[in-house]
Amino acid sequence: QVQLVESGGGLVQAGGTLRLSCAASGRTFSSYAMGWFRQAPGKKREFVATISHNGVSTYYANSVKGRFTISRDNAKNTVYLEMNSLKPEDTAVYYCGAASRGVGADPYEYDYWGQGTQVTVSS
User: Fold this and answer.
1) Which of 29, 60, 107, 112 could form a disulfide bond with 77, CB atoms 3.0-4.6 angstroms apart?
2) What is the SS3 assignment for 122?
3) Distance between start and end Cα atoms, the chain
4) Cβ neighbours of residue 44 closer than 8 Å, sequence gap 6 or more
């Protein structure tokens, strides 16, 4: 069992920066690939970024590539999402997920989810 708690969301102007954190409970954090997804009102949950269990491999959605960076600290049981050059279209609830079968871009590949943190980017 893994429990995930996101933090770091908020209101920021376009072009600004936010850093999201996702703290995990349990001693098996380092065995899970981790991912960030987002969901805007009326839309499906969409892939943002994912990182392998050891942090070696990372993958990004085209819409955030070059602006967002995913990282993890297994000693702290935490995964991060650094978001730069934010745009109004980045506005959404951001969720982190844990996947036991490796990195993936499909929400169905994830076993555990956090409760989400709201990110709002004003123009």
Assistant:
1) 29
2) strand
3) 40
4) none
> Mean pLDDT in runs of 10 for the chain (123 residues)?
96 98 92 97 97 97 98 97 98 97 95 97 96
For residue 75, CA distances in Å to 24, 36, 80, 100, 106 come to 11, 19, 13, 18, 27
Under 8 Å between Cβ of 11 and 120 = yes
C-alpha 88/C-alpha 79 separation (Å) is: 24
Q: How many CA atoms lie within 13 A of 80 on its CB side?
A: 11
Per-residue DSSP letters for 72-108? Answer: EETTTTEEEEEE-S--GGG-EEEEEEEETT---SSGG
Cβ atoms 111, 1 nearer than 8 A: no
Q: Cβ–Cβ contacts within 10 Å for residue 32, how many?
A: 26
